[in-house]
Amino acid sequence: MGPAVLSAVSAGVAISLTFWYRRQPAASLIVNHGVAFGVGADVPRTAEIGVFIALAVLGLLYWRWQRLRYPLGMMLGGAIANAVSRILFGGVVDYWHVAPYPYVFNAADVAIRLGLVWVLISFWISRGQTRTGTANDAPKVKEL
């Protein structure tokens, strides 16, 4: 239940912040019609089906990989929030800019990136654990 809640909270916070920032008179909003960093802004709208396919794949991974449910839940929540923003506003609404980072991003992007970092660290840690074994983990050799 925990990962699903994390996914819903990630999506809910991101969507709520988008609506809140849209009502702020001094907010500088960017509507990103492309994918990450505005790449693919000139791609036809039918190509956005790829976004929903990516959501389905992420959902499948969430269901399949038990140990990665929390980070995948964060990524899924962020992806859902960006998909909702894309449907409602014709693009993803970005509202945060942190210098010297040159791009504008939103809470959903943060959830996606944190989830991705979590997944990568998990793979790195598990890879290190499989390489470093003890003498007891070694296969038994039959003595002559």
TrEMBL record:
Query: GO CC annotations?
Result: membrane
GO MF terms held by the record: aspartic-type endopeptidase activity
**Transmembrane ranges?**
46-63, 75-97, 103-125
Q: Where is coiled-coil annotated?
A: none
Classify the source by domain of life.
Bacteria
Task: Please list the GO biological process terms of this entry.
Answer: proteolysis
Q: Which UniProt keywords apply?
A: Aspartyl protease, Cell membrane, Hydrolase, Membrane, Protease, Transmembrane, Transmembrane helix
The family this protein is said to belong to: Belongs to the peptidase A8 family.
What protein name applies here?
Uncharacterized protein
